[in-house]
Amino acid sequence: MAKRKRAALLPTNIALLQNLVRRDPPSYKEEFLLQYQHYESIRDIYMNSPQTENSEEFGDLVGFVAQVASCYPKETANFPDELSKLILDHHQHLDEDLREKLIQSMVLLKNKGVITPEKLIATLFPILLITGSKQLRTQIYSNIVTIVKGANTGSKAQKLNKSVQALLFNVLSTGESSGLWATKLTRELWRRGIWDDSRTVEIMAQATLHGEAKIAISGVRFFLGADKEREEANAEDSDSDASAEIGALKHRLQINKNSRKRGRKAESAMNKLLKKRKGNGGVSATYLNFSALHLLRDPQGFADQLFTNLCKYRYDLEQKIQIMNLVSRMIGTHKLTVLGIYSHFLKYLTPKQKDVTQIMAAAAQASHDLVPPDAITPMIRKIADEFVSDGVSAEVCSAGINTIREILARNPLAIEAPLLQDLTAYKGSKAKAVVMAARSLVSLYREVAPEMLARKDRGKEASMAMSADAKAGTSSRLQYGIEKGQTGIEGLELLAKWKADQVQEEDDEKAWEVDSDSDDDSDDSESGWINIEDDKEYNISDSEDEEELDDEAKAAKAQAAADAAAEAQNIMATKILTPADFAKLEELKAQAGFDKLMGKKLTNEDEVDARGLIGPVKYKQLREERIAQAQEGREGREKFGSRKGKRDAPHSTTNREKARKKNFMMTIHKKDVQGKAKRSLIEKKRLLRAHIDKQKKKGF
Amino acid sequence: MVSARKKKEKKKDFQKTKLKVGKTAPKSNTHTDLSFKAKTISLPNQSIVKGITGAGGVPVGSTVSPLNNEDFKHHILLLKHHSAGTRKEALIYLTNAWNKYLASSDDLGVNIKPIVDAAAPLVLDLSEKVRAELLLLLRALCFEPGQVDPVPANQLSDISKPKFTLKPEFYTANSPLSLHIPNLALYIHSAMTHITPDIRADSTKFLLLMVTPATGESHTFSHSFDLSICSVLQRQYWAKTLNCFFALFGWSHEKTDQQLTMSSSSVTAGLAFGKQAASVKKSFLECLQLFLRSGLSEFGVKYKEIKLLDASGNDVVIEQRQPENPLFHPMSRLFTQPPNSDPFLHLNLFKSTNTSATTTSITEDVEARNQVLKTYLGSLHHGLELLAKEGGEIGRLAKKTIEVSVC
């Protein structure tokens, strides 16, 4: 009877049927077919007129069929095709909820392995490009990201990646504004570290050269900021989950009753966690974290084309600045030659130009030592003329000098000595920022080309080096196109010295060891006699000579230090340095304050910070800013002041509080309140007696 | 004395804002942002449509016909109302309006698409009364303008009772409804495969409207432009309707010896057993029989008359026209120009490639239908024989249906 009841209920109760079908597909085939026929007839209605109402029933049916499709592969062979056709053809007219349901069902089918991820993406991606519904777009977008992510866990799914990337290339090559989705998707996948190969970068390069400003800028942003984004995302991932999970696990173990099952569960969870960490470590070992800029296949061509686009298309200023920034980054990183850009900068370099600091930063990035100085000199002239004079404000002046310094640090030959000396003269300015900028320029040239500075600016070391050069007849004067090159490993003499010390220490230690063989030897060889041959001179040492020997050792030590450079050369010639050696080298360099002495080494890949160019200019703060700053210092500390009347932990009222609240009339007649003054004579006497008695009892 | 604060505020107005290098100048106090974003800008005052319809919504320069006024349109909208009562009322209104229109005017070429499109989903309506009214409306729509309904209105009142079946003797070949069969058929098929037993039970009533053979004067032997409802259905939905009958009876396509499963038979007849189930099953069988007959008979060639058992047990005789000039060889049709408007429809030359989604196989003539039926015949007979074993009225009907299907 119960069975019949359930059977009667089945056709309308899809959820129950789904459960039963999953457990035993063959027995419930009839019921499934009943539903499937129903689905088919409704599907035909929707194919014919997609705007039909009451889509809820259809959505439920589709969900049901999708759930059990893997149980009846023969009957539902066409089901995925039908779904994709329905949504591809009619996504504009279908009900929102139904659309969502259809996509969910398709994703479910993919998860169950009924359709391949490629097919699913081939269905969803075209819709993403053309649909006008925001909701649908976000759903499809997030789904595509999840699909690609899911396929790439463990090992990379090259086939899927290639097909999706081909789709994106196609979208970008059509020249429509829908290409924005390609950039968005690529950027997201790059950020998550799912795509990190040069094909991905090529997609973005193509987007950057796109005619549509929006797409181009999206590509530019990718190159400028995607790597930072990726690093941030990685950092977030690694530190967030692990510790929290372990903490929760331990907490649960403490609170719940211990049982074997629970113990096993905890153990397996712990193992999983450890494995995951290990897995992460494994990934990071092989994970080549190349930045997008380095993965470009043809940087010179790309930069040339981008610069042409910058001149050709209409962009607004903000976009122009971003493109300039990217081109200059490219030029700096790869040491490219795009000569046109330096004259292009010229027209923007005036103090009244909006966002001029960013343009100046770009100008600095664009220069490197392989650019002909003639190309950069006009730029420096212009900056010097426009920014550096007595008539402008201090911050403008300092921004100008700082920019010039940044440019010259990369290409020191791009300035003539007279102009340089004019600029260094600003070290006598009244404004602190300007003084600092000028001084930094001086210190830069002391290092690279002291002969261009005025005599008094050269400093002691540089002058000495110059005179030494003059004596020797050599010249360390800079010349364009001649690279100094790396001649050795920096700080290697430190390592050499350290090694020598180590060896000596070891020797000392050995000297303390008792040589067990020596006794036997002496016994064996001619019973303790020493052979002395007559034609040899023997150096018989006495105490004085020993002192001499010590002196000699000291001298040798001193000489070793002096000859460290030679030793370093020796090490380079004879030894292969191990990673441990390099680690030690770093440590020794840090100890010796090597980096500090040399200043932070500038490389051509460094970014120039536009905010840093202005220098430390201090504006008077507004009231709000002052308050905010004061508040910042108070963060995380308790307010000063009395703690009176403030409870730390919740508790009931104390006696003291009760007494305080007591009605005044009830206490007025108490002796404590009335005080000593009102006591009667007898009272006083009694109290005194009592006191004396008490004292006596105590033994006073 | 002016307060210090006010003084300060006043002073602020005349202060020069300090410019900073590399930053945008702050906007002035009086700056107003006038930009806005909009995907479309509509100017209803300048609409072109307004010129055609007058101020009251009444079209200028045309008489107000019962099918072309605001009230009528409103009632079409009411077909989607959530309350069953309102839907029913709307259907009654539409039926009356249509009847009035039939009586009043000759053919004005009214487009009944909006009515059919709105009414067709009601085949699946959960309320029985609504379905009954819908049946009346569709029946009314079957008539050509100028034709008079042979059944008086007072006799139609018992249409909602399950015993009632529509007598099919009066339909014409050029029914205005025949153009909308594809849409309607979808819903009828859906009703036939529906999960709710009541809707299933009523589905054949709608189908019965469709399968009644045409008996109009314009019907000729050569079928030149046979647009009767029946022929449209037989041509395009033969296989699909057959499929739906299988679902309706709960038969499986594979010939298996096992009995019907509990659930499918329970859906088939609301309750698997009992009086009501029997009557529903009978109506199904009648419909199947008529469907097969009308589909398998070349009109006027094979059958002189189609006999059908009425609900009351009397034989309903449908006269079929004899061919007036039987000069053709029966096979000559194969070698002449095809008479149909779209003879190669089944090749699917001009549609999208992915038609597997909508299983429409085109069966233009009796031979084609016979071909299709052959694939179903085994399981169909199996199912019918099971019914024949039940005996009684149903048994007799089943046996007769087997006869129809083999000839």
TrEMBL record, chain A:
Keywords assigned by UniProt, alphabetized: Nucleus, Protein transport, Ribosome biogenesis, Transport
A biological process from GO: protein transport
Listed Basic and acidic residues bias regions: 626-657, 669-680
Main localization, broad class: nucleus
Domain SDA1 C-terminal: 651-698
Region Disordered: start-end pairs: 505-530, 626-680
Membership in a protein family: Belongs to the SDA1 family.
Protein name (record): Protein SDA1
TrEMBL record, chain B:
Zinc-finger is among the record's keywords: no
Tagged with keyword rRNA processing: yes
Keywords, alphabetical: Nucleus, Ribosome biogenesis, rRNA processing
GO terms for cellular component: nucleus; rixosome complex
An annotated GO BP: rRNA processing
Domain of life per record: Eukaryota
Residue stretches of biased makeup (Basic residues): 1-10
Annotated segments matching region Disordered: 1-28
Function: Component of the RIX1 complex required for processing of ITS2 sequences from 35S pre-rRNA.
Assembly behavior: Component of the RIX1 complex.
PANTHER family documented for this protein: REGULATOR OF MICROTUBULE DYNAMICS PROTEIN, TESTIS-EXPRESSED PROTEIN 10
Name by which UniProt lists this protein: Pre-rRNA-processing protein
